[in-house]
Write a structure and sequence with these properties.
Beta-lactamase, serine-type D-Ala-D-Ala carboxypeptidase activity, single chain, signal, 2 domains, 394 residues, 16% strand, EC 3.4.16.4, 9-stranded mixed sheet
């Protein structure tokens, strides 16, 4: 998810976590990660491997700010980006299991008061189409950029702002007939968030804390930039500028996308907490916490909806060719015998990747505090190395 424009050590967790266990036998793989700092021109890099619900390898190397000696730690918070979309899809699934929504709930079902203002066909757009990027609604274009700027003048909480963005967006004609084309759409995920907010009576920002962060014990997870104002207390996001120089971004309005886009991906957490989330998905939701959604619902969230056939390379942090489900994609790579469940996230200044082999119950998570193609390629090479090593142990 890239929307912004212009704008040492480690501690082994000996205690068993509720969802993913981190035993004393887990290997520190800092030595494996260090070479990728140079090949990817990365300030910092964190990674972990989860096998059958147990973290077997993990590590973190580098600095919070390029050019400075501020070593990262295993509990440092990295930006998650669009990997948070799967969490939004899971909250939507909770609403479905509770009878508050359906996969085929439409915009006019949930917002009947706006029906007369909706452009032709928009009212019939479903929750599933929004979560799978097949709604046909306008995506990350100049109109959305203008709405994001205008939202700062709108009064109210974030849920009020998302309802306002929804009201403005449903007036726009569809670009394609729903379910007939795929286009990565952060506007669509924000609107799906508004649907969740309407039926739950709570802001998405409150729900993700109550429904995901707390039950999964993601103690480092939070919303917005990973560092706090005026401090380098987490890995800062970095951008490679046109002149080749790398710029670090302190916390502030230009360090992340506007929080109105929270349901599309404005989150942060540590690599161990990301491993917990990924390991639960690798196990199809059969491990604690078992009261999130049913295993068959997790399977539905992971089930492909549309096959992506793009003729251009995908931006780092957005899905490449493959199949797309609900906040998850399925990607074929030459180093795995079958497609892997995959998603990446980036605000242009950070990058995260999740790779899952559901057949072998293996999850690999990686995060760095810089965006761009070089970083994306480095993480993919690391994923290959970690995956082949994990399969060899299987």
């Amino acid at each position: 998810m890239k929307l912004l424009r212009g704008r040492a050590g480690f501690l082994l967790v000996a205690a068993s976590l509720l969802i993913v266990q981190t035993p004393l036998a887990a290997q520190n793989i800092n030595h494996k990660l260090t070479p990728y700092l140079k090949s990817g021109n990365l300030p910092a890099l964190a990674a972990a491997v989860v096998e059958q619900g147990t973290i077997t390898e993990f590590g973190v190397v580098g600095t919070r700010k390029m050019g400075a000696e501020i070593p990262v730690t295993i509990h440092d918070k990295f930006h998650l980006g669009s990997d948070g979309k799967a969490m939004t899809a899971t909250i939507a699934a909770m609403m479905i299991e509770e009878g508050k929504l359906k996969w085929d709930s439409t915009l006019e079902d949930v917002f009947p008061e706006l029906k007369d203002t909706m452009a032709p066909g928009v009212g019939k757009v479903t929750l599933e189409e929004l979560l799978s990027h097949t709604s046909g609604m306008r995506a990350d274009d100049e109109n959305l950029m203008q709405l994001l700027k205008d939202s700062f003048d709108v009064d109210g909480d974030l849920n009020d702002l998302r309802y306002w963005l929804l009201k403005e967006s449903v007036k726009l004609p569809l670009e394609t007939k729903p379910s007939t084309a795929w286009k990565y759409n952060n506007r669509g995920y924000t609107i799906a968030g508004a649907m969740i907010e309407r039926v739950s009576g709570k802001a998405w920002d409150e729900l993700i804390v109550e429904r995901i962060f707390e039950p999964f014990q993601l103690t480092t997870a939070g919303l917005g930039t990973q560092s706090t104002l005026g401090k380098i207390d987490a890995p800062l996001g970095h951008v490679v500028q046109k002149d080749g120089q790398v710029k670090a971004y302190m916390a502030g309005p230009n360090a992340d996308n506007p929080m109105i886009l929270g349901p599309a991906g404005c989150l942060h957490l540590s690599i161990l907490d990301l491993a917990t989330w990924a390991g639960w998905n690798a196990g199809n939701g059969t491990r604690p916490p078992c009261n999130i959604v049913k295993p068959e619902t997790v399977k539905k969230i992971h089930t492909p909806v549309f096959t992506i056939k793009g003729d251009k390379p995908a931006r780092p942090g957005t899905p490449p060719n493959g199949k797309y489900a609900h906040g998850w994609g399925w990607l074929t790579v030459d180093w795995a015998p079958y497609p892997l469940l995959y998603h990446a996230g980036s605000n242009g200044k950070n990058l995260a990747q999740i790779w899952i082999d559901k057949e072998k119950d293996i999850a690999i998570v990686m995060m760095t505090n810089i965006g761009g193609i070089q970083a994306d390629e480095a993480l993919r090479e690391l994923a290959k190395e970690l995956y082949l090593n994990a399969v060899a142990r299987y």
